[in-house]
Specification:
Layout lengths: L16 H12 L2 E2 L11 H12 L12 H15 L9 E4 L1 H13 L5 E6 L5 H7 L3 E6 L13 H7 L4 E7 L11 H11 L5 E5 L19 H4 L2 E6 H4 L8 E4 L2 H14 L5 H10 L4 H4 L1 H16 L5 E2 L7 E5 L12 H12 L1 E2 L1 E2 L12 E5 L4 H11 L3
Parallel strand pairs: 1-11, 3-4, 3-5, 5-6, 6-7
Antiparallel strand pairs: 2-8, 7-8, 9-10, 10-13, 12-13
Helix pairs in contact: 1-14, 2-11, 3-11, 4-5, 4-10, 13-15
């Protein structure tokens, strides 16, 4: 028997750090604050809406672009929140989660040899997506000189990275892993920077409803010059606490959507029918997503208050459901370990799982910072804090 040898399309990719740390948390009985998913259920009314759709016979293929009622609900939401009108027939596409949406956008626009700018640290799917399309990822570090721990965009560095081969730029706000939220000034600067170019923007906005302290989410849809060149990606899984459902969407101008849909139809073709109908019905009530900032701010504040009693140095958490901390001042010898080893030790010996920030950098940049997820029940957070208080 002979199994043919393969030349890997992704030779440098192994098992993700999220899978590794979640498995270790399960093995050791640690509190899992590593992988970004809630440990509580979504709204029973949403489950009921999907059940109703199942029983109503919505169990065959939906339109390739998504159930019309759901695309219309998405368009209404974007218009109400961000003031931009998308045609649900030609400019909204329902996807099998945000990760598929980003891959499909990349495959739709990136040709072999094209360059795509990504901002480090970044979500781990971006660069493999670019490589699968034959593109070249150009990593530009986030952070401003003179501001330790900053993850703000440096537009001078971004501008310097643009070449005639630059096809796209990927941004993410609120930002995973740092929790940084881009400001209106940031978006206006980006709009001016891209105005004279043919660069496509891929705007990952899956944490759009998780912004705190009176800030607003500055969607690319708010800015005509950005909306005209952007694939805007969001996630029902993140918004409605149902990450396992893997339903998201992309909003983009009709010419961009047309190319996106060409790839989408041969990528996944279409998305789970009853869940689309259930989501469309549930979206009639805006309260669940409008209440998210207050809901998650309370969890963030509970978690930060507990961490403030330790020697962890808390980094700002303006958005998302992640809290980053610097562990270099802890009163244990392990404070000198590299991030990945520290997370292994923290999981095995302290009983709390975290994610090393170095996993989000192309060069494994290590700054003694790890990321916790606070999208957990309050008793889960308190249990983790009780263990972390021993440090």
């Amino acid at each position: 028997m002979h199994t043919p040898a393969l030349r890997s399309r992704l030779p440098h990719v192994g098992t993700t750090i999220f899978t590794v740390m979640s498995a270790l948390a399960t093995e050791t009985g640690a509190v899992n604050l590593g992988q970004g998913f809630p440990d509580f259920e979504g709204d029973p009314r949403l489950v009921d809406a999907v059940s109703d759709a199942l029983r109503a016979g919505h169990n065959q293929y939906p339109p390739m672009t998504g159930v019309p009622a759901l695309r219309e609900a998405i368009a209404r939401k974007i218009q109400a929140l961000y003031g931009h009108t998308y045609n649900p027939a030609t400019e909204i596409t329902v996807t099998a989660g945000a990760t598929q949406a980003i891959l499909t956008a990349v495959l739709a626009v990136v040709h072999p040899g094209d360059e795509v700018i990504v901002l480090d640290p970044c979500y781990d799917s971006y660069v493999p997506n670019i490589e699968l399309a034959g593109g070249v990822a150009v990593r530009v570090p986030l952070g401003l000189d003179g501001e330790p721990g900053s993850f703000r965009p440096d537009f001078d560095r971004i501008a310097a990275a643009i070449t005639p081969r630059t096809r796209a730029l990927v941004i993410n706000s609120p930002h995973n892993p740092s929790g940084t939220v881009w400001t209106r000034a940031d978006m206006l600067r980006l709009q001016d920077l891209l105005a004279p170019t043919e660069i496509v923007l891929i705007s990952d906005e899956v944490y759009e409803h998780m912004v705190y302290d009176g800030q607003v989410h500055e969607s690319a849809a708010r800015y005509p010059g950005l909306a005209a060149r952007a694939f805007i990606v969001s996630s029902f899984g993140k918004t409605y606490h149902v990450t396992g459902w893997k339903v998201g969407y992309v909003a983009a101008p009709a010419p961009l959507s047309a190319e996106f849909r060409k790839v989408h139809q041969f990528n996944v073709f279409t998305v789970n029918t009853p869940m689309q109908h259930g989501l469309a019905a549930y979206m009639a009530d805006t309260a669940p997503y409008l209440a998210l900032p207050a809901f998650y701010a309370a969890k963030r504040d509970l978690f930060r208050a507990g961490l403030a009693q330790t020697r962890f140095r808390l980094l700002p958490a303006e958005g998302t459901y992640f809290q980053c901390v610097d562990y270099s001042a802890l009163g244990v010898p392990e404070r000198d370990l590299p991030e990945a080893e520290f997370c292994q030790w923290l999981t095995r010996e302290v009983g709390v799982a975290a994610i090393p920030l170095s996993a989000f950098y192309g060069n494994g940049f290590d700054q003694r910072v790890v990321r916790f997820c606070f999208a957990k029940r309050d008793d889960t957070l308190r249990a983790a804090l009780e263990r972390l208080a021993r440090l």
